[in-house]
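ok here's Restriction modification system DNA specificity domain protein, seq below lol
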Amino acid sequence: MSEMSYLEKLLDGAEVEWKPLREVCDFKNGFAFKSNLFKETGLPIVRITNIDGFNVNLDEVKYFSPNDYKEDISSFEVSMGDIVIAMSGATTGKVGFYKNETRCYLNQRVGKFVPKRNLLNNKYLYHFLLLNTEAIYILAGGGAQPNLSSNALMSKLLIPIPSSSNPEKSLAIQSEIVRILDKFTALTAELTAELTMRKKQYNYYRDQLLSFDEGEVEWKTLGEITRKIASGRNKTRQAEGDFPVYGSTGLLGFTNEPAYSGDLLLVARVGAYAGLVNAVSGHFDVSDNTLIIHPSDSWNSRFAFHQLTHMNLNQYAVGAGQPLITGGMLKNLKVPVPSLNEQTRIAKILDKFETITVSITEGLPREIELRQKQYEYYRDLLFSFPKPEIASY
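and the structure came out like this:
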């Protein structure tokens, strides 16, 4: 069965009407909670920073006390299953599905959708909004200071309603679309939860394996266990070439004239990423904003990578505006140096965890990316209802 015939079978001859969102859904703007009255405990407030584009994240949340307000704030409550949207700021147009049992409350510049239950399935709306994040951002004016109007959102954003003249059939079709798409999001959620667990395991074992009691192993400076620590020299690169050019955050471009080879470590030298560690191998060149560490034979390069990453080198950067780390600073840092055999053993264990939790070519991040693309493919397909021709005047 072709993809289009599946959609046609789902509709079963029903026509699709594109309606302004306000015809099938109400909208609630947030309350102006006072930042000087924020608490460390109490009732949670959903701010624009709590909306990640899929869910509402309460990891970093502010609280309030109802005793601080004379107004009736009950209408601003967010319950499990509600859909909220950021109306301004960096997250403008992003939506969040609230999955917690704890009640929370809408802050200003956060809105909540209230579907008319006899016309619109809540999760159908959610998947539709995820599909239209870019269109919503355009409604907000885009640019550096986007600002979304609830009136523009609800009147200009059109949502496809199958079999609008028969609400019961319409909701049945919407529910089937939701059932299909929820299978994909559920799988992605499971993989994401597993990734979170694996990252915690990785951090735990890394802390355990890289911690040594005093006197258990010898401590040496990086200057003693490296051949050289120096800045890269590359200032130009191109879009194509035979060898990669690396910078402080990864691949920058390519070159046909590599300056370095081997298994080396790169450390971001300046800026917000100062101290970020990357491991590279083969033949390559390195930009001039990056330090290159050449481990000696007594310091396993993979062990060195995990050790330096664990040390959080950013803490040693100096300067507020443009944090800076120098080769001289690194050479003076002392680290525990177990035997080479022990370094190799530890590196192999941590490499397995890193592959599972970090690798974008294998492991869980890759699997999550593939499942997300699969979800987006079927979401786009299932919402590909024909749109009416709009006459131009």
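fwiw The longest strand covers residues 110-115. kinda neat tbh
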